[in-house]
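ok new one. same drill as before - structure tokens go in, u give me an amino acid for every spot. 143 of them this time. try not to just spam alanines like last time pls lmao
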């Protein structure tokens, strides 16, 4: 089996898609569960803990998708996660199960997704420059 250096092996795409789907399902459950499930994960109190968790959760969802999909889909990934954040806040407000919608939660979630997408974009550019520099070095050494 051969594949070009521009494409990832199929199993890696499948694994990243599975991780992305699992993270979306887990964080959706956590954000729609009555009460505060984050108290089960952190044994200590942080100021703005809920906002930090929203930021981290949406950042964690953006990274696996951003890493394996082509760069042209990065904006789509980011906007899809922002739409998911808006939908989560709407569902929390409409659900009435001990949750309430918050514009600050939405902003934290959207910022987490945007920052992760920017991180992936800059990391890809840095990796591409490094890889291109290594390829030029190898090709010039071969001559």
């Amino acid at each position: 089996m051969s594949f070009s250096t521009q494409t990832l092996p199929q199993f890696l795409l499948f694994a990243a898609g599975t991780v992305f789907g699992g993270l979306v399902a887990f964080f959706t459950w956590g954000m729609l569960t009555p009460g505060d499930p984050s108290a089960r994960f952190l044994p200590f109190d942080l100021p703005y803990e809920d906002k930090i968790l929203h930021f981290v959760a949406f950042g964690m969802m953006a990274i696996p998708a951003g890493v394996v999909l082509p760069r042209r889909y990065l904006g789509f990934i980011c906007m899809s996660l922002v739409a998911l954040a808006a939908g989560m806040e709407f569902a929390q407000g409409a659900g009435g199960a001990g949750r309430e919608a918050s514009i600050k939660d939405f902003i934290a979630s959207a910022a987490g997704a945007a920052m992760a997408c920017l991180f992936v974009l800059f990391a890809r550019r840095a990796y591409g420059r490094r890889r291109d520099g290594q390829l030029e070095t190898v090709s010039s050494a071969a001559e």
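Helices lie at 10-32, 49-68, 74-95, 103-142. and btw The radius of gyration is 19 Å.
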